[in-house]
Each structure stands twice: as C-alpha cells, then as structure tokens.
Amino acid sequence: MLSNVGFFLRPLTIIIDNRRKERIPLYWYAATGLSIACYSYIYQISMLWSVFSYFTRADDVLAGIVIFSLGVSSEIGLVKLCFMYANIDKIQKITEGYLKSDAASARNSRFSKNILHTMQSVKKRGVIFWLVIISNGVVYLVKPIVTPGRHFMEDQFIILGLEPKYETPNYEIGFFMMAVGVCVTCYLPANITAYLITVAGYSEAQFLALGHELANLWPDAQLHCRAMNLSQSVNEQANEYVKMRLRELVKIHSTNVNLLRDIEGAFRGAIAVEFLLLIVGLIAELLGGLENTYMQVPFALIQVSVDCLTGQRVMDANLALERAVYDCRWEEFDASNRRVVLLLLQNAQKVATLSAGGIATLNFSCLMAVIKSIYSAYTTLRTTMK
Q1: Cα separations (Å) of 301 from 122, 142, 237?
Q2: What is the pLDDT of residues 78-87, one digit of tens each?
Q3: Distance from the Cα of residue 278 to its chain's centroid
C-alpha cells in the first residue's frame, strides 16, 4: 500500500525504501542540480536583490511586496527537501517499519481489507493535493505563453544581470530559469507532502481497522467456538480466543503509535518552518493585493490546509479507536482480558498527533488559528501602510 507513493516521485521512492537497491540515475542528479541552481538564482538571489535594492531605489513598495511574497512562498519545497535529507536515516526506518507492518497483516483478511478501504481515500486525498499544486504551477507557466507579447510569470520580477529583460537573449534565458524555478517550487512540496499524507494516512487506516476489529472481537470469539464445535466451557474458550487476538491488536497498536511518533519527530521541524514561511508569504500576498497574487494564494493556503487535514484525520481515527475499546463488550471478558483492554484504552487515550515543531497540533483548530492570525496581521499592517 505504501508503494503507491511511487506514483509521485520515483527517485524519492528509491531513497526512502531500503528494499530498492538500484542507484538513482545520473541524469536525475544533473537535472536536480541545474533546477536548484536556476531556482536559487531567481527566487533567492534575484528576489532579495529586487526587493531590497531595485524596488527600494525605485520607491515601488507594492512591487517589492509582491516579489517578496513570491520568493518566500517558493522556499517551502527546498526547506522540506533539506529536512528530508537531514533525517534520511530516520525516514528510511519509518518507511521500512510501515512496509513490515503492512506485510504482517494477512491478505484478504477483514483487517487488511479495512486498511485498504481507508487507504483508497488517503490516496485520493494525496492525488488531489498533488494535482492542485502541479496544476497551479502549470497555469502559472502557461499564462505568459498564451498572453500576447513577451511576458514573464511575474512581469514585475527583475532578474539580476538580465536587463533589459524583454530583449533577446535575456528574455529567453530569464524565462527558462524562471520556468525551471516554478517546477522546483511546485514539484518538491507536491511530492514530499504526498509522502507525508501516505504514511500518516496508513496510521489513520490502522487505527480505524483496529477499532473495527475490537468492535467484532467478542462476536468473532463466539463464531470461533461454534466453528470448533465446542459444547463445554464455551466462555473459557472464547476468552482464550480473545486473549490471543488482543495480544495481536495491542502489538499492532503499539507499533503504529511508535511509527507515528517517529513521523512527527522527522517532519515537525519542516512543518514548523513551512508554516512560518506560509504565514509570512500569505500576509505579503494579501498586502500585495489579490489582483496581483491570486495565483500564489491557493498554492500557499492549500498546503497549510492539507497539513492540518492530515493531522485532524489521524486524531479522528485515534478517537474512533478509543470509542471502539469502550464498545468491545469487555464486560464479557475474564479478568485477565479486561486488564489488557484497560491497558489498550489508556494507550488509546494518549491522542496520537502531528505537530508543527511541537508548538501547534495540526488539526482544524490550528488551521482556523493560522487564518485568523494571518488576517489580523494583514489588517494591522494594511492600516500602518495607509
């Protein structure tokens, strides 16, 4: 199931999956190096020069804000890539753990089918996010091509060393470098976030599947006894079956919680920096005017929304598991099995979460708080500017 992430980025799959022994082709390294070089020159060096030198001298604050918002929002993908490489050993271990967990579940069992059912929804979530981010980049690239005359993706952008920007070959070189920078800006966060959606979604799927197993635990035990034609000590035999299944379910839950904790540890820094960049970028985009930044706002806003949605889904699945423990008909169990259920309940009540740097828990409340903070900062700065 986790192999579905290969749909998004083959080199990333090779890196995060220890089972893949083939080397990344050299042309990927060459293309990546060229792309990051173009991106860095356009959206870091030229952006800083434009904002703090060119537009400062020209006294064009609005253009400077628009270019600044574009540069800040574009940093997300590179930041996430750097964090992934810094934590590559941990991410490989996490991926291996999920693959082993998936391989341990019996194929065509109810547990496996329930996981697969939830993962289908998770995959749709990841694909929709990927398509929205990539489509945003495609539209951003196509707009100047279909517009009559020579245009850049952002006509106010001044590229250091390529002036006058609309003359040949400055225009062709600048357009190519900016187009490559747009690809880096969209492609990296689309794929890395898709990976996070997939692995966190697998934890969500396991929580929900575990809850379904617990809800059917006692009926399964009775069916087992009837299938074995046990006429005496049926309750004792049923509790033996429950004991065996509870051991399996507790082990699966413990493994899943540990893996989710590892995900949170590996990505919390990246998500914290991402949120900071997106908040600053969105404030700048609003200050620059939606008529100038209408292509940038959806790019930034959907990334905050998807991260919070991913965290909320995990919390909801954990809550569903907690309720299933209450409803597993534990009153029918013997004392030993009741103690195991109590232990499972205590573990389930420790809500599994994803966070941004350990400061903010990713959920819908966090999303609303971020949006309110952005709007408050925007209105304050807008009043100051006026």
Answers
A1: 20, 21, 55
A2: 888 888 888 8
A3: 14
pLDDT tens column, 123-139: 999 999 999 999 998 99
CA distances from 107 to 1, 121, 200, 204, 216 (A): 12, 19, 21, 19, 18
- pLDDT at residue 384 greater than cutoff 90: no
Which secondary-structure segment (H or E) carries 229? none
Cα–Cα dist 299/161, whole Å: 28
For 144-177, what is each residue's pLDDT tens digit? 999 888 888 888 888 888 888 889 889 999 999 9
pTM score of the predicted model: 0.87
Query: Residue 195: which residues within 8 A CB-CB, separation 6 or more?
Result: 5, 8, 9, 12, 16
Rounded to whole angstroms, the Cα distance separating 283 from 273 reads 16
Question: What pLDDT is attached to residue 160?
Answer: 87
Q: What is the DSSP string of 314-349?
A: HHHHHHHHHHHHHTS-GGGS-HHHHHHHHHHHHHHT
Q: What is the CA radius of gyration of the chain?
A: 26
339-350 pLDDT per residue, tens: 988 888 888 888
What are the start-end ranges of the E strands in the chain? 355-356, 360-361
The number of residues making up the chain comes to: 386
Taking alpha carbons only, the member of 218, 163, 206 closest to residue 46 is 163
Q: Which of 342, 202, 354 is nearest to 268 (CA)?
A: 354
Distances (CA, A) of 354 to 100, 165, 318: 22, 45, 12
E strand or H helix at 375: helix 364-385
301 alpha carbon, distance to own chain's centre: 13
